[in-house]
Amino acid sequence: MAATVYRPATAPIADAPCEGLVCLELEDGSAYQGYSFGAPKSIAGELVFQTGMVGYPESVTDPSYRGQILVITFPLVGNYGVPSRETVDDLLKDLPAHFESNQIHIAGLVTASYAGEDFSHFLATSSLGTWLKEQGIPAMYGVDTRALTKRIREKGSMLGRMLLQKEDLAVSAPSLGVPGDWKPHFETIEWVNPNEKNLVAEVSIKEPKLYKPDEATALKHPSGRNLRILCLDVGMKYNQLRCFIKRGVEVLVCPWDYDFSKEEYDGLFISNGPGDPKVMDTTVEHISAALQKNNTPIFGICLGHQLLARAAGAKTVKLKFGNRGHNIPCTSMVTGKCHITSQNHGYAVDATTLPTGWQELFINANDGSNEGIMHVDRPHFSVQFHPESTPGPRDTEFLFDVFIQTVAKCTTDNTLLQKGVEFPGGTTEENERLHPRVDVKKVLVLGSGGLSIGQAGEFDYSGSQAIKALKEEGIYTVLINPNIATIQTSKGLADKVYFLPVNAEFVRKVIKYEQPDAIYCTFGGQTALSVGIQLKDEFEALGVKVLGTPIDTIITTEDRELFARSMESIGEKCAKSASASSVEEALNAVKDIGYPVIVRAAYALGGLGSGFANNEAELVDLCNKALAASPQVLVERSMKGWKEIEYEVVRDAQDNCITVCNMENFDPLGIHTGDSIVVAPSQTLSDEDYNMLRTTAVNVIRHLGVVGECNIQYALNPFSREYCIIEVNARLSRSSALASKATGYPLAFIAAKLGLGIPLKEIKNTVTKVTCACFEPSLDYVVVKMPRWDLKKFTRVSTQLGSSMKSVGEVMSIGRTFEEAIQKAIRAIDFHNLGFSESKGALMSVDDELQTPSDQRLFAIANAMHAGYTVDRIWELTKIDKWFLSKLKGLSNFAKDMTKLTANDVVGRPDLLLRAKQLGFCDRQLANFWDSNELAIRRMRLEAGITPFVKQIDTVAAEFPAFTNYLYLTYNASEHDVSFEDRGVMVLGSGVYRIGSSVEFDWCSVRAIRTLRESGFKTIMVNYNPETVSTDYDEADKLYFENINLETVLDVYQMEDATGVLGAMGGQTPNNIALPLLRAGVRVLGTSPEMIDTAENRYKFSRMLDRIGVDQPTWKELTSFDEAKAFCQKVSYPVLVRPSYVLSGAAMNTVYSEADLESYLQQAADVSPEHPVVITKYIENAKEIEMDAVAKDGKVVGHFISEHVENAGVHSGDATLILPPQDLEQTTIQRIEEATRKIGAALNVTGPFNIQFIAKDNDIKVIECNVRASRSFPFVSKVMGVDLIEMATKAIMGLPFVEYPAIDRPSGGVGVKVPQFSFSRLSGADPVLGVEMASTGEVASFGVDKYEAYLKALMSTGFKVPKKNILLSIGSYKDKKEMLPSVAKLSQMGYKLFATAGTADFLQEHDIPVQFLEVLAKEDDQKSEYSLTQHLANNMIDLYINLPSNNRYRRPANYISKGYQTRRMAVDYQIPLVTNVKNAKILVEAIARYRDMEIGERDYQTSHTPLQLSGQVNFTLQDSLSRPHSFKKAHVLSVEQYTRADLHLLFTVAEEMRLSVQRGNVMDILKGRMLATLFYEPSTRTSASFEAAMKRLGGEVISIATQHSSVQKGETLQDTLRTLACYADAIVLRHPDETCVDVAKKYSPVPVVNAGNGSREHPTQAFLDLFTVREELGTVQGLTFTFVGDLRYGRPVHSLVYLLRHYSGVKVQLVSPKGLELPTDVRQQLVKAGQLLCESETLTPEILGKTDVLYCTRVQKERFPSEAEYEKVKGSYRIDNQTLKHAKSKMAIMHPLPRNEEIAEEVDFDQRAAYFRQMRYGLYCRMALLALVMSG
């Protein structure tokens, strides 16, 4: 078998000269090609891999690597360059400061990618490549190092040789490598096995040399001389020397074979080194002699450890592939503690051969191999790992102290030479006795409540993990969490779930009721922590133990002062700050802090009065302003522009401590980490930076006493090693969810176990199943987290980013390069983003946007780069590390180059396409660059064999085999990690959490996956949101952490050969790609995407409702202000207005008058044919009702109805829902059920769907229908105890299930769902409810009635029941009247009422005592007792009911009403605010009834049982066919016979036909009928289409072949027709003579259908063309049709032009060659109808830009007077991707087919190409026509 050759796996560095290829050949013959970046030469050696993520300068200078080719598993190498070779070490005087020896020892270096000259670090003086060249060491990048590591892991260490490309043999496309027989292109050299040489002799010092410590710190011998360590240098790393010298001993370094028996010394140290200890006999003899004498303590490291063991008489063995990494756990046999160590060795001591008197000191916690030995009664010990680290963690450096202390003691007391070494940290037995396991049977877990900004889905994930862990330990778990939308609160997780507020009052009640043994407060975010702090002193009395981190620790971390003091006590520093109440105090404070400082006004919200001061003048100015707003200012050291770095730290009760993941913020300090782009692991920290912060993290966490998991954030000065601790979160946080997903290490699961006292080393790594959980993951990929903001949803919100978090969700992406990962992340944020490219959006000026970051920052960087800004200029403005900026600049430059090419240029350049994919560009983006379309690029890519590879996330960088199904796609690789035999069902997740689509869709996805798995299906989850349970790797059989877009889903679907794609559970994200997936040949499970489109296209949906007789509010799409005005007058105000292209209430507004309409339309959009608006009649005071249902094949099999508390007009996502409904009349309910059944049948739904109705006086109307799971599914499923998603999944998969199952809840009782808002985080946003959704989450509670449930649910959102003062401000008279009884009730209950002017007058008239308050002018406002703002500011108001008069359309931002001002103040001062009259009424009633609430078993009830329905008959079709109409038994000869109503009937029946065909129904409408087809001209399509149509309707066909018939004998047409009429019920005729239709009309006794009369007409083609336009674009009205080609003889065009006169607003453009123009009479029709827009002989970009329907016809040679005339125009109308770049993104390309050259094949892959679908629509249309003509 030929050995495998792999082409380079990554793109070459841009803008750098190519240094040639290198081929890495292995002993087994496989060859990996890559790019050279070191010395241009070939070498051979032993191939080894190292899994550390930092520290390449230290590693390559480590003498232990002598002769080895080093493979670094972390893919990004060279990022922080190389420090100066000249700088000498302060301690070692003549040795270099930054390296482990004075030369590079590796033979060669192999990496996946390389940073080139774009390195970034304040100490760097050159790139890695430059240094390697200086030292003559070859290096290569572009190798799939993961694949290579797996090969070494499986086969063991092997020999390799790096062969340089021959200079004279250039390769045309280096990125494709040299395929096939590569050897002639590369040099060749002999194999070398370094282990056969004495490598130690090469690296050891040549003669003894003495190093002395600083006299001030020197340790002395009793005789007065310095304490001396003799070091045997068998390949010593300089840091071992540094560790000794800085501890005050002098070191005599001796060569490896030196006989040191004559030397005077106090301790013997044997260093690390390379090679096999077997060849070192001389050294072993010298050590043996020292052991015999036992004059001094002895300590060995690495090779020194192996030599000591051999000298003692033990044996050593060669390991399969060695241990080389920075994360290897070693357990001490003395203390039982587990330490994370740095290692680099290929041999080990065989512990079974240790002689008497010796025992194991450390063992490897992963594989049990020996890691250290000690003598029982002599001071001799050694370790296999590197306690001096560099690179790696410094956790075991204390062993140097142990050794030196032992040496010092032995010099004063030589009896100690007869004793073993003493180690700190107690014994294993003592430690286990001090920290026993916690014995608990029942644990209470506090959840986090509703999702809000700053506290979102990550707690669903971490809470679910914690419960899984507790269940695994057999503990009964009780959860309090009112968040009904999450998996955490589902059946099957916790044993009991309380849907109650997570606050002290209710938690106390639950504890008394449940009597748990223990409680967890660390899995519910800030909410749960606060409760823990409030109840801290009561827990003991309640008999509850706090698990995990102690509450006192939490209090320390939450309180700035306490925290700063605590840090000071261990010598760590926080940001310096001081408070001042005058300018003088501030100036004094600064002396200690130093400039620059940040000044903030204390007690001011939203960062009021804060700013930066760089000098005294600025400080004075700022303080004056701030002190005007507040009595005190805080002055704090400004670290703006510093790097922000985070570590996730885990610690168990026995003090084992690890850091699981470190993260670097792309944005510098100053932006909240939740609003920052975050990269894991850090990219620009050197080993010293990384481990300095890691060591600090471990020290801080140990000092604080955290048990479980926590997060520590630092600010790091990029120009020094100065750092500050910003904060510690002693709980699971957003970062922990991210870290878990980024590394595959299940933090929350582990933390829950640690809280039970289980030590880390006893918990298994669930991914590898063989290693333990006490280790630090090594990553061989890079992860980018990016926030998603939804600031457009709010009025008047500030878009600036700062220290307060504003994002509502986040995405995470994984790649093998930063470019690949960040481009994926940008696309994941929003469907419209294609990647890192300039955006045409309305940004502020680029400089402003870069300096004051907003949610548009990344696009501003792209625009700046596009405009030619340099990396340095952008860095000055943003302070984003230059390494990141250089990477982005590379993308920007590549994109610029690509736009110069077209698809045709790229066809022969697979290397370009490959490079683009390796840089993370998506097909859509490339299609944009190259004027093509996504599917054409895809096809080109597949033909070039360019597809992504699937890689695993395994926590160990491939060092151990992993059983992980956690996967991502990358183009930077050369092989897959997995095989594809499952053929699973793909479930598409919800994508990023945003307003309108949040955790409820994750619940749906997970429930679907669990149902599929329980039913025996293999499952594949696709999602990219790190906060979710669905991206937990144990939920599905395979998890692809990938984007949900057409390209990625197709890639996964085709690789996995999946059985189908289930998209109905993930909300709108999967729905958006359902139709394109279907068209690309994917089996989409559930309702047909064409039906989804029918429900989502307002024209199609509206027509469908009319067809089935379901009412809807009147609406119209309008293209001018006058039309809009006229429509509004007709339907009367108020109306809803919105731009036509948006869904889900984006930019919608309610308009109450013509003046409002005018200003809204000016502000929102210029109304024009390009930008139409949709206006809908707004029905005031109507109830809104939510229907959630499941259907199978169009029959409803389960449903629940919930009612909204608020009237229609509040977005359903912001509404309060009640289930079962309390105020609906039976008739309303029945009408809703009836309408639902009709809609389900018409859309042929299989699976979940949701309909929103409005009802007024029992009249119901449909607002919208979502053919997918909706936001309310978890709520109704949990309240009713019937899992609708499980039912829907079974219906979709054809599994058995029970229709309308029994409802599982006790009788009586109501569930109420209440929205959770986050206005307090969004400074400036107006907290009113409207048609735009604004809530970020939801909660629900249960009660005896709706009032109790509502109050509990409202309290769950943080609402506090008012104690005494209530302020009222009610706008409209109607609301005042409606509120009166409620206000009276408040007064009776003893509340003190305050009100604004109008409200106060009204209440006083009705004898309700009230105090008047007013918003006064600035100067009076401060002191007046009537000041409303002062009452709010001083927290004198407990509840503010502010009911604005009609929520007018959004006013421009500068208009600030008093109402807005006070509403905003209420939010800022955290005063409960109610802005809706219905909410106010139910709230008052609830407060009146339920002053204090008891908890207990809640009784549930349903007020009605759904009726069991018998099979439903579809009457509409029968009705349509039996009604009198103009098709019945009539000829169909010309389009001129038909009206718009006739067309409407034909198309309605065609839609029914389509449903029928899709359901696979056998129809017998025309059973027993016969159709004859008579074609005098050749035809395959039309005849086949009629034949298929007839047969599908149950009829038969006789086709007459005219060329063999009696026609040849001279029979006339009329005779043929009369004869056929004797056999058939109808005839389809095509004839070259235009007058044939007159003959037919005159002589045929049965209906004749014209299939083309010469070049005159082709009516059925025109019908199907119109039907196609309706189906593709929703409507025909208002469209612009462009007809191209032969318009003179193109009969379908003539018919179509005639029919278009029936549709208003249609415009026509004609493009044809001279001589083939539209016939004059047809053209006249267009002119008369006012539809002719333009005529041209060429298809110009302007014409295309206006086109909605591009209709192409054949230009045939025979139509031209001469060959020359034909040749002139032949190619001028060819439609290809190049032409289409000028076309609209939503349009249709049509062609009656067959085609010649008119449309290029590449266009077939464009979503807009409708011509093959046109054929299918034709079938439905002709079925409808035949049925109408022939039935009955």
End-to-end gap: 72 Å
Assembly of the depicted chains: single chain
Average of the residue pLDDT scores: 90
Q: How many strands, which pairing sense, and closed or not: the largest β-sheet?
A: 10 strands, mixed
Shape: globular
The structure class reads: alpha/beta
Instruction: Tell me the helix content.
Output: 25-40%
The CATH class designation of the largest domain is Alpha Beta
Binding site for carbamoyl phosphate: 1581-1582, 1630, 1658, 1661, 1793-1794
EC number: 6.3.5.5, 3.5.1.2, 6.3.4.16, 2.1.3.2
Binding site for Mg(2+) 2: 727, 729
Domain ATP-grasp: 564-756, 1102-1293
How would you summarize this macromolecular structure in one to three sentences?
With 1832 residues, this protein is of the alpha/beta class. It is built from 57 helices and 69 strands. 33% of the residues lie in helices and 20% in strands.
Structure description:
One of its GO terms (cellular component) is cytosol. Mn(2+) 2 binds at residues 727, 729. Residues 443-983 are annotated as: CPSase A. It is found in: Cytoplasm; Nucleus. Residues 1359-1507 form the MGS-like domain. With 1832 residues, the chain is an alpha/beta fold. The protein folds into eight domains: 5-196, 3-Layer(bba) Sandwich (Glucose Oxidase, domain 1); 200-434, 3-Layer(aba) Sandwich (Rossmann fold); 442-547, Rossmann fold, CATH 3.40.50; 576-638, ATP-grasp fold, A domain (Dna Ligase, domain 1); 782-1087, Rossmann fold, CATH 3.40.50.20; 1118-1176, Dna Ligase, domain 1 (2-Layer Sandwich), CATH 3.30.1490; 1315-1489, 3-Layer(aba) Sandwich (Rossmann fold), CATH 3.40.50; 1658-1817, Aspartate/ornithine carbamoyltransferase (Rossmann fold, 3-Layer(aba) Sandwich). Helix content is 33%, strand content 20%. It contains 57 helices and 69 strands. The strands form 13 sheets. Strands 13-15-14-16-17-22-21-20-18-19 form a ten-stranded mixed sheet, with helices on both faces. A seven-stranded mixed barrel has the order 2-3-11-8-5-4-12. A seven-stranded antiparallel sheet has the order 36-35-32-33-34-37-38, with helices on both faces. It is globular and about 135 Å long. Mean pLDDT is 90; it is low at 1142-1146, 1449-1454 and 1499-1515.
